[in-house]
Every structure is written in structure tokens, then in C-alpha cells.
Amino acid sequence: MRHPARTPRTVLAALAAALLLGACTGADPGRAAAPAPVASPLPAASPTPEGTLLVADFGADSVTFVDPVRGPIDSVAVGRAPYGLAVGADGRAWVATAEGVAVVDTRARTRTALIPYRTDTGPVTDGEYRGGGLGIALSPDGAHAYVGVNVPGGPGVLEVVDTAAGEVTEAVPVGRRPFDVDVSRDGGGVYVTGHDSFDVTVVDTASLRPRRIEVAPYGTEGGLGSWLKPHYAAVRPTDGMLLLPFEGERLAVVDPRTGRVTVEPMTADTHQHGATVTPDGRLLVVGTGAVDPSDGRGPSLTVRSPDGTERVHPLRGPHEDVTASRDGRTAYVTGGFTRDGHWNGITVVDLDTGGSRRLPAGDRPLGIAVL
Asked: What's the CA angle centered on 161, arms 159 and 167, to 5 degrees?
């Protein structure tokens, strides 16, 4: 690690004039995407092809369907400022917007419902600090959608959606600004990453009792103004551990059963956001750029093998989230970003060679899934 002595105090001192409460840093805007073939719009009567990408357009009120070679083929209005999304085996997508959870038939490319939240999140707005849904995940059987609802100025809420009834049935208190929601492989636990509260809330799906685990490998000094907070997590398939990357320097490995947190070194030296795990167990992590431009590296995609070895692939400009192809050979990294410097596209990374190309995709795309 390049900065073993870095602390929240030193980072905050260097950047105090630039900080907003709870903010995350950006980097210089990425250069315009290279010219790419333009996909033809898909006729409304045509079913959506397998392998199509679906992205949440945080800069618009839609989701965009993207051919992974040629770019956008269709879009569907879903609700204000969509953030995260999850796709079930039945072809329905569940999209967390500022207004409610939108339900999209991805085969027919139509919105079929907008389920309002039970929680009062204030006026419907846009931007990084807006109220409403952020992270979202489905239970393994598809019976429930779990959405982290941001309540500006206060603790967040995990709302439980009955996917058959199309309504919110439960609301559970969790940490502040629930950026990410993950579910254990057996469906017995839901893990909510609280960005502004330095924690993961473990919710037992049978009792719906929440249990807080502090995850703060740099400490909690700085509170809401700290840059060294958790963003996204991934569930390790081999043992169910939660993996939370920090700053391209530290990986917090959380045992959701005991609450024990261990820390392993990372090598990218960049502020990290989105994370996912490939079918063969590699951890993919999006780096958005250095917190302090004089002390850190630029945007990147880290590919971490189960043995802890890493390959770091540079990216042009900040990105936010990542998913992998079903065969685990390709990563799709969204260029939306929650702060300044976003771009309207996806970087496609060949995980075997490290080669990449840029693809137009939606309007400030954040959440992403492969259909």
C-alpha cells in the first residue's frame, strides 16, 4: 500500500474546503467516447435478445437497453432518477427510483408498475443526496425485492417488496444512505451497506431483525464529512463473507454471522465504488480516481483473484458500478458516477487481456445488469 499511515484526519485536512457532507470525490471528466457503431432501435414487437445490458439512467427517468457490441436499442420511462436495479429469472427488472420501485418487463420492454415507498422521503428530487431507493436486490427465489431507501438527513430504511402482490410489506431501520443491498446465497440474510454510517446492517429475513456491524478500516473520524466510508459490497460465493473495498488500499472482509471484520491489502490506490464477483470468484472493483489528486491514482477496474493477487486496468474518467458477463470473461463498467465527471456510456473490459472499448449507453448510467 502506498499510504499505510493515511488517516481520515489528514485527508480531511487536505480537502476540507472542498468537502460537502457525505460527498464522494470525483476526477477529471473522461474524454469523449471513441466513435462506435450505432445500434438500430429494436421494434416494439421484437423480444429483447439474451445478453442485452440494462442500465439505470440516473440522469433521466428511464432505463436503457444496450446491445453489448453496438450500443442502445431502446429505453423505457421508469420514474425519477433511477439508481440501482435487479433482474429476476422471470425477466422482470426491479428499479429503485426516487418515486418508488419500478417494475419492468424486460422481454417486452415496458414498465408494468411503480410501487410507492412506505417511508416518507420528502420531495422527489434528483442528485446524489436525493431521497428514495438506492441499492436493491432480489431474494434467490424472486419472492421479495429488498430496496435501501434513503431518507435525507436521517437513517435509512430497508423496504421489503412482495413481488407477487406488488407492494411494500415491511420496513426495517438501517444505516444512513443505503448505497448497496446484497442477499446471502441461501436467502436468509440481507446486507445493507450504510455509506454515511460506516456500517453494514444484517437483516434476518425470517425475523426482519436488524443487526449493525461497523465497517471502518480507517476509523470514523470526520463523520458525515469523511471520504473513507463504505460504498458497495459483494458476497464471496465460497464462504458467504462480505467484501467491501476502500481506497484501493484496504479490503474489509466481514463475517455477517459473527460481525468480525478483517482487513486485507489492495493495490489500486484509488477511491472505490462499485463491486461484484464473477462466476469463478474474482472480485471486480471500480476505482473512481484519487481523493487527493496529488496522492493517488486515477480511475481503474481492479480484478482480484481469490488468492488475493490483483490486476488493475486503467479507465478513462470516473465510473460507478460494474457487472460481469455470464461466462465471467467480460466486465461492463458504467460511466454514470454519482459526482461530477460522469459520461454517458459503458466501458467494456476483456478480463483475459485487459483490453477495453467504450460504448454509448443511456444518460448517466449507474446500476447495470445482464439480461
From this structure: 110
Residue 342 confidence (pLDDT) above 60: yes
- 361 and 343 Cβ atoms separated by less than 8 Å: no
pLDDT in tens, 283-325: 999 999 998 888 899 999 999 999 999 999 999 999 999 999 9
Q: What is the arithmetic mean of pLDDT over 68-76? A: 96
Q: Determine if residue 91 is left, alpha or beta; phi over 0 gives left, psi from -120 to 50 gives alpha, anything else beta.
A: left
Tens digits of residue pLDDT in 177-190 = 999 999 999 999 99
Cell output for 99: 418515486
Burial of 225 (0-12, 13-18, 19+ CB in 10 A): middle
Render pLDDT for 139-149 as a digit per residue (tens, 0 to 9): 999 999 999 99
Q: What is the pTM of this model?
A: 0.90
55, 366 contact by CB (below 8 A): yes
